[in-house]
Amino acid sequence: MSNTPASAAALAPIRALPEHGCPHAELLESLRALHGADVDWKGGRVFSLVYHAGDAHSAFLKEAHAQFFSENGLNPLAFQSLKRMEKEVMRMTATMLHGDSNAVGTMTSGGTESLLLAVKTYRDLARKKRPWIRRPNVVLPVSAHPAFDKAGHYFGVRLKKAPLDAEMRVDVKKLARLIDRNTVMIAASAPQYPHGVLDPIAELGELARAKGLPFHVDACVGGFLLPFLEKLGLPMPLWDFRIPGVTSISADIHKYGYAAKGASTITYRSIDYLKHQFFVATDFPGGIYVSPSMPGTRPGGPIAAAWAGLQALGEDGLVDLARRAWEATRKLRDGIASIDGLRLVTDDPATIVCWASADPALDTFAVADQMEDRGWLVDRQHRPTTIHLTVTANHLAIADHYIADLRASVAHVRAHPELRSRGNAAMYGLVARLPARGAVRLAVEKMVEQMYGPDDAQTVPGQDGPLAKLLEKYGERALSALDHFDSLKSRVLGGGK
Ligand SMILES: Cc1ncc(COP(=O)(O)O)c(C=O)c1O
């Protein structure tokens, strides 16, 4: 290593361990340079991925995390501190979710692990209670997070997905029809990620009780948000343990609990469910091995930071953060509703904003490209085509700026409708609408291989993939063919884009 690098691009690629150790100062400088290429999350330019409750809170979390940087929760006898903190975090969570004194659970590394565990737990419960089931399945909405698909893939559980109604909530009648003798669990979300709506948890709870099935509510996003929006007086349907049929809830502290990353929870109504989550190996020559969740080594930092962070904020701090996130949400929703040609997809009492074009002549993804040119990281969604914003307290300061840029972007795309067949707009449009989903999967798999493959070249993912080639060759013609296909489909089936 030589002089202080000015930017990430100036850093020489690392191909092997350096022969001799490098000076700390130089490496810390390189880390700062690497940061330089990242999105400006602190400035509110990204809506998801990072939940920021201010510099003072972050500094405090780092200190708490650092105190338990080396400790390992795998052995609760060695680190009784971590066991106690985990228990107390779980107690705070269970009480917040209106569980009674029987409610118990574990911390996990994130929402994905919590959902993987829910599926594994209920599969194993069914194995015990209904051993004749050969091909277990889970019934859930199409809007449920892909971590459920991952769980199904990992654990050999089939997912049966119910469609949404016009308000993007799962259609309970259609979901009920998917339940069969191999169903081991029902799942739904509060709120679901794509559009931010709460599924009808009360109705689903009744259904679960009537069928004698466990019911998991994925409140990874809402767990540490909805209770505080409710305290602010927002009209909030019941969705937690107050619904008798709900048997477990996942809630991420590293989202709206504004904790350090690596902190989620899964809480069960009682130990009768939780006990099916645990793993015990008795014959390992290394001794008896017990694991309450998925990892072996359990880092102490996220547990300590969550324990300290929740208490540092307290209920009034979390209510205040929820209030600011809600104010930002209202500002954004009102601003979007005032822009001619755009529509809000939903208006639920959660802090996710979802918008789309309301005008066939205005391409949503072309507007998204314009926003990206103005420095915003945009979450494009499909089926139907929409744009997603997970709004946090940190976004209150930039809501007006976002709306001004969105207004300008819409005006620009109206003046240049040909933008829909250029750049990312064309690529995302094609990926969203191509009926051959197998081809889309192959293209995405290729892209991931490129990202993790041995290639030396610094490739931009997807840019020279098969879909990019298709677009280069056929451009507007490919999109027009899809328009034609969509209108044919809607005439025959009554479906849309
Ligand atoms: C509703 C929902 N569930 C689960 C998850 C997965 O959480 P994580 O990314 O922490 O694994 C997410 C992530 O955004 C989510 O929105």
Can you tell me about this structure?
By secondary structure, the chain is an alpha/beta fold. Among the domains are: 1-38, no CATH class; 65-310, 3-Layer(aba) Sandwich (Aspartate Aminotransferase, domain 2); 434-493, no CATH class. The protein is built from 15 helices and 13 strands. The protein has helices at residues 24-35, 55-67, 80-96, 111-129, 147-155, 172-178, 201-211, 226-231, 271-274, 300-337, 364-373, 399-415, 423-433, 437-452, 466-493, and strands at residues 104-108, 137-141, 158-162, 183-189, 215-218, 248-252, 264-268, 279-281, 289-291, 342-344, 352-357, 379-381, 386-390. The strands form three sheets. The chain has a seven-stranded mixed β-sheet, with helices on both faces. Helix 5 links the parallel strand 2 (137-141) and strand 3. Helix 11 (364-373) packs across helix 12. The radius of gyration is 24 Å and the shape is globular. The N and C termini lie far apart (53 Å). The model is unreliable at 1-5 (pLDDT under 50). Bound molecules: pyridoxal-5'-phosphate. Pyridoxal-5'-phosphate is lined by residues 110-112, 115, 145, 147, 189, 193, 218, 220-221, 252, 264.
